[in-house]
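Q: Given only this backbone (376 positions), what sequence would you predict?
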């Protein structure tokens, strides 16, 4: 039996421009999580540190980042742990100046041939371990999935694949996504396949055994990669594997919905939002409920953003039956006319069209409210 720590999709160096002023701090989170994974590998006395693609977010990361990774892998190799990695779709080897073509990673094995001609054979604790993995190239990787087939009976056989399990709702499959099925993967007869590319944890198993696993991204890169993030600690024996999830993120992303019914202005709403305060949380918050007056979302953002590491607000509150809308509906003003016309449109709208009308109604009333009305 050998022990491995399996990770993938670290996306070191990702720009994260959507985070604005927090992007630099968040990029450093990704590096700290990489270093935490190294520590986990050492603490758990693993033999191999597997990275199943997209260690970097770009095939040409900056040299400072490359140096940090090289130092990290050196730290592992000095403790008898062998890093094994494959390029992914983001840090691919297509261009001549790809990071894996231009830089060495001493102590690490980088599996970057376009197909597996022969698995890489190493010795771990006196056992033969055979490593299967490749770097996809459109012109040279025909039949690459077939080349993952186990070559012999003796030893432990481990595959690394940056690809998409067919049936996942996350992907529109492209050729470079290397779509596969569990039945296909089982024909390879490997003892364990370390997967990458899918950003949420997924254990691929049947009634008999576990075959492969996606650890997911160890740090959430975008909303949808919410909640705890994991690496995998796997104990691998011939045709048997035990998988343990290990939580490893620096910060958590979450989607929540908050009912603001009864709030009369932005300060009321801000007081309710402040009850969710968490300076380490990246929160996408959908605001719902019947409110008494239109909210200026920009002002509300300014009143609340300091309570979180990052806050993204989406306004889905309702105003059609609010006290404000009823009060101005009969006015002989532009805004009164707007409310009456909007109600006519809503009466004829389908459910989908109704959502659009509600959104337009809300946005226009915010402007009327901000400027004190719409006198004719």
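A: Predicted residues:
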């Amino acid at each position: 039996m050998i022990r491995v720590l399996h990770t993938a999709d670290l996306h070191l160096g990702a720009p994260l421009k959507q985070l604005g002023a927090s992007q630099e701090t968040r990029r450093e989170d990704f590096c700290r999580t990489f270093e935490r994974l190294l520590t986990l590998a050492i603490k758990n006395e693993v033999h191999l540190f597997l990275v199943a693609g997209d260690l970097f977010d770009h095939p040409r990361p900056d040299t400072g980042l490359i140096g940090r990774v090289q130092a990290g892998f050196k730290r592992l190799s000095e403790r008898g742990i062998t890093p094994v990695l494959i390029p992914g779709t983001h840090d691919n080897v297509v261009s001549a100046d790809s990071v894996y073509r231009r830089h060495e990673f001493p102590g690490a094995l980088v599996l970057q041939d376009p197909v597996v001609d022969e698995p890489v054979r190493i010795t771990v604790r006196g056992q033969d371990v055979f490593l299967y993995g490749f770097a996809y190239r459109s012109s040279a990787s025909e039949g690459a999935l077939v080349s993952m087939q186990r070559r012999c009976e003796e030893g432990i056989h481990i595959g690394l694949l940056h690809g998409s399990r067919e049936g996942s709702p996350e992907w529109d499959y492209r050729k470079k996504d290397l779509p596969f099925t569990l039945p296909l993967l089982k024909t390879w007869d490997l003892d364990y396949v370390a997967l990458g590319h899918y950003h949420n944890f997924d254990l691929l198993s049947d009634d008999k055994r576990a075959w492969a696993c996606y650890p997911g991204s160890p740090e959430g890169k975008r909303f949808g990669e919410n909640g705890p993030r994991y690496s995998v600690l796997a104990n691998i024996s011939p045709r048997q594997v035990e998988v343990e999830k290990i939580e490893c993120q620096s910060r958590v992303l979450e989607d929540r919905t908050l009912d603001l019914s009864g709030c009369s202005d932005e300060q009321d709403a801000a007081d309710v939002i402040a009850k969710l305060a968490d300076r380490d949380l990246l929160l996408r918050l959908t605001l719902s409920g019947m409110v008494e007056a239109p909210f200026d979302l920009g002002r509300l953002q300014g009143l609340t953003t300091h309570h979180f590491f990052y806050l993204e607000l989406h306004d889905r509150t309702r105003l059609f039956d609010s006290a404000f809308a009823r009060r101005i509906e009969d006015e002989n003003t532009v805004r009164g006319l707007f409310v009456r016309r909007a109600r006519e449109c809503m009466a004829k709208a389908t459910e989908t069209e109704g959502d659009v009308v509600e959104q337009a109604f809300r946005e226009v009333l915010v402007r009327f409210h901000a400027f004190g009305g719409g006198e004719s």
